[in-house]
Amino acid sequence: MKIYSLIHENNRLIPTEVELSFQPGLPQIQFLGLPDQGIRESIHRIKSAIRSQGFEFPKAQQILVNLRPSYLKKSSRGLELAVAAGILWATEQIKKPSMGEAMVYGELSLSGEVYEPEDLVADFEGFRDLPVYTGKGLSKNVEFARSTFRQLRDLEAPELVPAVQKDFVIARPELGLDYFFPQRQAEILKLIALGEHSVLLAGPSGSGKSTIAKTLSSLLKSPTSEQMNLIVRNQREFKDETPTWRPLVHPHHSTSPLGLIGGGAPPFKGEIARAHQGLLILDELLEFHPRAQEALREPMEEFRIRIRRGRYFEEQEADAIVIATTNLCPCGDWVPQTRVMCGRSLKKCQSYAERLSGPLVDRFQIAFFTKKREEGEKTLGSDILQELEVTRAFRDEIAKADGRFKKVAGKWTWDELIADLPSFYLEQLFPKEISSRRRELATLRVARSLADLKRQTKLKPEHIEEALKFTYTPFEALKRLS
User: Fold this and answer.
1) Cα(271)–Cα(292) distance, integer angstroms
2) Longest CA span, the chain
3) Domain count of the fold of the chain
């Protein structure tokens, strides 16, 4: 007899085939196919549940349970119901319902009560059209239809629970919306939040770098239902509370490279994967371990991580907006193009600045230098949000005719960006000193955000010239630090 159930692989549920065979021998259950200790312990729950419900456990027969695929190490919370049901159906103590192929997944108590495992909310692709047999629900937001029962003896007459529409509670955080931001900071907040650009914030201590970084979470675009589904599934793996907004992950600078990008065997997710669809704030970037900094280079560009550990391989989504803050001098006050009375030696300042990894810095689309005293009018955070929402409505209207605008500017491709620009413009616009195509692409993406803020559909040379102030000038200043 064959039944389908579910096992864990890399923090998600995948189907497994449960095959039962009865052989003469001692009355016991023997699992084959690399079961873990948890599955082996379920043998005693299965026996106790069958007997407690008034059924007979097969006498003078050894029950072999083969789990396929056989090469995977098996871990599961709900295999025990599949095995118990298979025994009762095979011995004809309960009539098997005419369900054809089905998923059977549930936890058993010693007295035979059946529970729906909390991890059943995880997706398992390719088997959603099969009927699911499980216990009474303990988990929440299981959106697919399933047949449930309270006790093993009710297996013959389960209760059909219809599919439910997943409703997500979305609540925008209010951090920073009641703050007044100087003009320069207000402009950079609008630019980053609209285009979702990665940014390196450098400047003196107490100049508002961390405040800018955290306020960005309150200014991001409201997540769609599809995005919230991804966020909820992702955060569940970290056993966090059900999220109501895009994640804000703020690891301490002592976090190891493994903790930041993930790893292990089997691979677990790191902080950047935890920030998927949200913000990853790296406060005091230069205090992070050099290996941790370098490990961010690929995911910042590709928005995913590929981890190979022995025979395990996993590709994890890591589409996070990376916001890094740092001081550039041990005194904490120095920034390029300013004069500061510093008690440290030039050599010490240079050695501190040399911690900046050039290839990592090049992955940031924007660099911005903060100041202790900013001039100009101040703007309330809630007013910044209001202007952003008007701009987003403008982009949504354009997106009906131009599919490019469905993506934020920070994700546009080179071909999408240059579609509005004659080729001879590009040859003249970029400084000859720009050494990487990555810098040119960042400039075009930021220029696209600047055009959006001005409610202009076409990308123009003046937008690129303005973008260079964020994507070229400060990066050149950082190169000259050492």
Assistant:
1) 11
2) 89
3) 2
